[in-house]
Amino acid sequence: MIYCGEMDTRLNPISYFIPKELIPIGNKPILVYTIELLLKSGMNDLAILVNEYNKQIFKKVLRRHFKEDFYYIVLPEPKGMANDLLFAEEFVKEERFIVILGDSFFDFNLESYMKGFKDEKTSCKILLKEVKDPERFQVAYVGDNRIIDLEDRPKMAFSNWAVTGLYALNKDIFKAIKKINPSSHGQHKIIHAVKWLLQNGYDVGYETLKGKWREIGSPLDVIEQNIDLLCSLEENIMGEVVDSRISGKVVLGEGSVIYNSTVRGPAVVGENTTIKNSYIGPYSSIGNRVIIDRSNLENSIILDGCNILGVEYPIDSSIIGEGSVIIGKKEMKKTHKLVIGNNSKVYLSI
């Protein structure tokens, strides 16, 4: 099961109009990487937990990437991941299963992880990753090769083992969920249900992650994950390059054209996009139907349908939402003209 039901505001204003799990990184939604990992690991019976407002958006986007039609479980009112899993109890039945957060990125041998869980007699198996800043995460305390305790984002952690957003579970988790109380914010958290299992004599195992994991919880996380993914980019020029200089690995989609410009990879450009008289620096992901003219940008994510015109100073480490228009004008009076939505962030060089 892939959990996409959380109402999270940390990636606003981008996530006002698109669920954070569908924000493109390297021109592919975060969730697509997760589904590809699951399918590659032999897991074909997938359910996606969504809320009643975004189910159709998920279906529309995922149809562009997969032939499979996934099973959706609609959460009428998300009250925390643990409570929301109760709506999946009928889907799971007696089977062992995994729950993975749709806004987390994993790159590891999931097939081996699940084989280990199937061979064990544990009720739950959690995946841990050693981190430098454990206070940002849910934390596990480990001793004598077993889980001793779990803590939810402590103010001061005495362990560097973060609990990642992947849980291998059996039906005992549903009993635990029905026993726990909500947090002070009214949320039923999965870590509290796992802790209940631990405290009531159930076997809770763990495995330490040697591969990659990132929780996508802020714009900076999106930018950094984009850098990581583009580092492994394979060059593929399907569009047209005219009087331009291309260096490094670049993907250029069908119907796109680069004219009289410099593009330094790694960078990815979607379909039917026009770049002219511009500089595109490394670690740039540019979507479909974008127009960039007389502008400079690098290390940024530009979503579909944007127009960036006459921006002389580089746009750097930015995420530009779908359909946005950015225009630079030379005028006698130096001013900033802004039309921005709720909770937007604007950083101006002065």
Written account of the structure:
It is a single chain. The protein has two domains: 2-218, Spore Coat Polysaccharide Biosynthesis Protein SpsA, Chain A; 233-327, Hexapeptide repeat proteins (UDP N-Acetylglucosamine Acyltransferase, domain 1), CATH 2.160.10.10. The strands form six sheets. Strands 1, 4, 5, 6, 8, 9, 10, 11 and 12 form a nine-stranded mixed beta sheet that branches. A six-stranded parallel beta sheet has the order 14-17-20-23-26-29. The model has no long low-confidence stretch (mean pLDDT 90). It has nine helices and 30 strands. The chain has 350 residues and is an alpha/beta fold. The protein is elongated and about 70 Å long. Helices cover 21% and strands 31% of the residues. α7 crosses α8 (190-199). 36% of the residues are buried. It has helices spanning 14-17, 30-40, 55-63, 81-85, 89-92, 110-119, 172-179, 190-199, 219-230; strands at 2-3, 24-25, 28-29, 47-51, 71-75, 97-101, 104-107, 124-130, 138-143, 146-152, 161-169, 204-208, 212-215, 236-237, 240-242, 245-247, 250-252, 257-259, 262-264, 267-269, 274-276, 279-280, 284-286, 291-293, 296-298, 301-302, 307-309, 315-316, 319-320, 325-327.
